[in-house]
Amino acid sequence: MIHVVSLANQHFYGSQLDQMFRMRHAFYIEGHGWSGLTSRDGKETDEFDDEHAVYLMSIDPFGDVAASVRLNPTTQPTLLRKFADWSDEKLPELENVWDISRWIAAPQHRRAANPRWPSNHQRELMIGILEFCLSRGLTHLTMLAEHRLAERIASYGWPLRFLGAPRDYEGGKGTAVAAEIEVGQHVLAHTRARTGVSNRMLVEIDPNSIAPTGPTLARVSASEDLREITAAIPPAQLRALIRALSQNLAGGDRPRTIELVGAINRLLEAAGLSLEAEDSSIQATGSASKLRVGPATAAR
Question: Which helix (H) or strand (E) holds 104?
């Protein structure tokens, strides 16, 4: 899922924000050696990480940030406007145009030499970006980005137009370009077809809709339903079901299979059950290890 993190709900995402800023430091400062960036305690931030910034985060089943991107309204200061000389055109200052920057992915979800996005998290982030644009009534995005990132975005069929010629920066450390991207329902439909991601990806927590104390009745009811369903399935059949689901969803991707088993484990724990592996490994063939289902022993 792609989480919308803004000033209103960022207090729910403290650890993920910390992780994202550390990823940015590792990628841009340590990896690329960009000058002029600010970093403190191993976290890269700039003046556009302000109260208007919105972060879209692809968060894995363990709560870690797999990929993220920052968006800023062009009615406020943006990264591209700071480097306006990269554009041959007047930059927009419109409510329906936002600036996108700091597209970053965890190392295991990158593959710079591959023309296709390397992981579901990257593909899902593309869908989340477009869903966010629709939710805010946006028609275009602007960006100042690495030339290869712009080319990869265009290769997925996003209507991308250069606002200036690509240029080398910092003595040849890389090549960047200013660009404009058209967004809308037609782009979302095309991207769903290209990526195979058909489900809605965007999640935006409204802090005003969350009860201040305790779980809601709906959560308790759902948890009880899950307990009843799982209790009615013989353990051997439940293990077979989990194994089949993991294999079908992850294919031969062993790390993804482990992620899925972990996610199912937490789901059952929420219902007061536990799913533990007698053998902690998952075989390279994709078959899940033996699993034990029973009452959860750890306090939640």
Answer: strand 97-105
